Amino acid sequence: MSKLLCLIAALCAATVACQAIPTGLNIIPTANVLGMGDTRVDSESSNTGKLFAPIDSSINGTQFGLLLGFEAGIDRVSSKGTVYNAKWRFKGEGTITPALAAGVQNIRAGETPQYYLVASKSILLAQGHAGLMRDENGDTLTLLGVNGKVGPIELMADHAQGGNKDRTGLGASFSFSNITVKGTLYDFENAPTERTITISYTHSVL
Length: 206
Known about the structure:
Layout: H1 2-14, E1 38-44, E2 59-65, E3 70-77, E4 81-91, E5 99-107, E6 114-123, E7 126-134, E8 140-150, E9 153-162, E10 165-176, E11 179-188, E12 194-204
Antiparallel strand pairs: 1-2, 1-12, 2-3, 3-4, 4-5, 5-6, 6-7, 7-8, 8-9, 9-10, 10-11, 11-12
């Protein structure tokens, strides 16, 4: 946990003049969602730290922004097949209060979904995130994260801990037009540190 706090403190200092609205960080989901009609396509190289995928996996996914604060997605995980997800942002961010969202991921026949509740709030022009997840083993995970953006460059750090999961992610991305390239460092409690590259394309039909 001390390692995570150091990462978050450093990132907050680096993002005093920035903000961003991703729908998820390196590891954890946030309370942000895609706008209605928005579509994002992602491809992450092997050794991901995503909570719904084994560590040695690569992921290709598509996320869709729907009506009334809903979004849904489909991910192809190399080591387990197709999984689905959905999220509902049921409260927007206020001056004092955070945005709130509930969601489910790891939806797949023969497996137990992961359910979560997460809050997101702009702080010092960056954005902080905190939540809880019930994973496929019935364990409760604590989710913490922060992100910020300066021009085309975005930085993010997050941490998930509970049950047999204890991992930290530190990422940096660069966006040009509708394309984003992100490098992520994943630090696992009981596995070697891994690095991945993610390429994303976002398109709006509205």
